Amino acid sequence: MREASATDRAASSVMALISSPLGAPVRAVARIRASVHVKLLAGFLLITLLFIAITAVSLRAVRETARQTDLLDQAQVRVGWSRQIEHALAMQMHFTSMALLAQSEDSVGLILRENNRFNDTLARLETAAPPEERALIQAIRVAQDDAMATVADIANAVRDRRMADAMTALRTRQEPIYQKIETLVGSLVAAEDTRMASLRRSIAAAQARSLRQMAGFAVAAVAVALIAGFVISWSFILPVREFHGFLSQVAEGRFGGSVAVPNRDEFGALAERMNWMSGELRRLDDEQRVAAATLRGLNDRLELASRAKSEFLANMSHELRTPLNAILGFTEIMLDELYGEVPPNLREPLVDIQTNGRHLLRLINDVLDLSKIEAGRLELGVDEYSVQEIVDVVHASLRSLAIEKGLAFSVWVAPDIPPARGDGRRITQCLMNLAGNALKFTRHGRVEIDVRLDEGWLTYRVSDTGIGIPKEEVENIFAEFRQVDTTITREYGGTGLGLSITKRLVEMHGGRIGVESELGRGSRFFFTVPLHADGGPA
Amino acid sequence: MRDRTVLHIEDNEYNRKIVRQLLSRTSYRLLEAADGEEGLAVAQRELPDLILMDVQLPKLSGLDATRLLRADPRTAKIPLVVVTSFALSGDDRRAIDAGASAYLAKPYSPRDLMALIHRFLPEN
Asked: Taking the complete model, does pTM exceed 0.90, yes or no?
């Protein structure tokens, strides 16, 4: 019950999935004519490509940021240089004033040194500066050249002691030039500052943008991975579910159904094989049913035939016995002289008729017994029986024959044997067969019957000092119609069925029969049966 | 006291002849019937002292006839020996179950039959 409800739940979730919008892509993926391997590979490849794209985008963003940071660094260097230029300019002005105050030419050398530094720095700046700043730098250079020309004039005036001219040149020419240069450098610095600010802004913007891009890609990658995983896996799970239901049907013995899946991959091929299998199972099942019906019919007919055979045997048994009864009966009452005195010359042929009649009776009995055993019609009448009684009956029945032949005939039964269970009459028949054979095939000496009980098994043993059985015949001795040779039948009589019947009866009791024999010295036949035999089918 | 009566129900003429011969030198009165129906009728009419019943009879089987005789209060107590086909065939058990007093397997020794008759019905 619990399993059934779990299956129902699973089935309803499958139905919900198939009717949802995801059902369409699931079916679409299932319908793709590609192997499961390729589909899985494609799914993983798709996700891998997304991650490669994310990596590329982030690499580009990093490179862009690095470039802009580089630009920023350069601008910073240029601002540094601009500050150096400003400083060199201030030093020039300072040294120029010093030259005037000290009226010394030494200061002029210092001015030149500062000028050189100014020019060097400006040259570096010019190389590094963006084109829009070139004009400004050019203007600074022109102004600086002017300033240097003025410095030269001032220096000449100082050398010539024309201090007034030098002062005038300083105030009227040199100072405005310096101020101009200062202004120009100031605007250069300002331009660089502006550029740096804009660079910083653009770096921040670029970083924000790449962050957004990467987040977007990551979200897209996760979404695509989830959807692809879901769709691909369900395109496999759905047919597996179908197979599960289908195979459950088959397992319950409902053959001939079919399974339909949209897949055109291995699952589709599997479904095809399953449908083929289902058809085959249906066909085999039908065949088997037909065969079973045929067998039932045959069995019924066999049963009828077997019953007919049994009836025939029973009838034959009666039909054969009735005239035999008359033959033996008339012979006996003639020998008993109920019809008057028997002439001596007729007595022998009458005894011959009687002997042969009895032999015919034994043959009939044995053949009927064997037929019944063969047909499985012989049932044991299981009851309690006394081993001692059986041995006594056999002894009493055969004693006269032993006396007639001059043989010692003794019996011995172990004293501790409790009442046994089995078909006492059949056990008697078995023992009678063995003891009868022993007496029949022994001319001199003795025949002994002994019975022992050992761990719940009864062993009946008949030993004789008779003709014995050749080694090569021992194996065949229990087969039907086997006597060691046909002359024996003539000399000793017997039907050749006794041992075979005895063997079957012993086996029906769940026991076994055996013989130890030495040619010319005697034989020892024995059979072993359970003390409590159930008499199940042989 | 009248002679003890034995009813022999048997369809085979020769077997009837044997019993006839056996009883010819005794004081028993012998009645014969050749099938089950006739045997039943004779038994109910004559009320014999002993019945010898063959198991396989025309018209009415020996076992069925035995059952009917046992069901009839007039014949219920009459000693009845069923002559079976074969001691080991199960007929003996069926005979006792049907109500037979004893059974004798065919072919029987006439001596054994006489002994059985004497057992159930001592001669006067």
From this structure: no
